[in-house]
Amino acid sequence: MTEDSTPKWRKDFPIAWGADNYVTRREFTKFLVLVSGATAVGNGYFVLQRREQVAHPFPSVEIAAIDEMKPGQVKLFHYPTAEDAALLVRLSDGTYAAYTQKCTHLSCPVHFAAERGRLECPCHNGAFDARTGAVLEGPPPRPLPRIKLEMADGKIFAQGVIGT
Amino acid sequence: MNQKLQWLAKLEQRSQSVMTILVLVIAVLLIQLWLLSIALEEFMASQSGLAIPTFAASCACLIVNLGLLKYLYDVDRNGDPS
Description:
Shape of chain A: elongated
Radius of gyration of chain A: 29 Å
Radius of gyration of chain B: 19 Å
Number of helices of chain B: 2
Shape of chain B: rod-shaped
Helix content of chain A: 25-40%
Number of strands of chain A: 10
CATH superfamily of the largest domain in chain A: Rieske [2Fe-2S] iron-sulphur domain
Distance between the termini of chain B: 28 Å
Strand content of chain A: 25-35%
Oligomer: heterodimer
CATH topology of the largest domain in chain A: Rieske Iron-sulfur Protein
Largest sheet of chain B: none
Number of helices of chain A: 2
Number of strands of chain B: 0
Strand content of chain B: under 5%
Structural class of chain A: alpha+beta
Order of helices and strands of chain A: HHEEEEEEEEEE
CATH architecture of the largest domain in chain A: 3-layer Sandwich
């Protein structure tokens, strides 16, 4: 085919449909393999976080005296870092429970409703059982992370965060 | 003209190969996204028991995708991968 015999429309659109489809699909496939690599790296991030957690276990922090609070009372503290607000509650039967204060829905601070024996989130009316941290109602997808408590020498110590 | 028809037929064949690879890569990527969502859900719940298994499975998926990418380069290079 000589230059002169090429129609004008072919000069304007020199790439065939088939070739165009081939190139765009090939490039898209390469891009998806790149995304696949990024996804594997994302999974690796959680492994690193796990290793970090194992390497630096939670500290033991004194948060209150055993006889400091009456049943139905609540005390605010920070654990495991100064940025992590947490609640220590004394339940009606005299036992203690502690939870992080961030709602598992959208991280609003929860508060202790002693009369109902539950922790409530005012943002979207989520509620958690104060005894177990389990979701009672509302949109939170997970229980409140519970803080492990240890009693010694008349004092209460926070010793870790349990997911469920 | 006959040569051009042959070229178009070959292009069509390669295009179908690429389409098959593309579908497979998407399927494997969806599995990887599912694995990532599991790991994220575990992380948000302050648990990490599935972090290593999901990472290993995700790496296996990546290897499959890299194999498919190699196949794609072979198609590009030869038009008829071995």
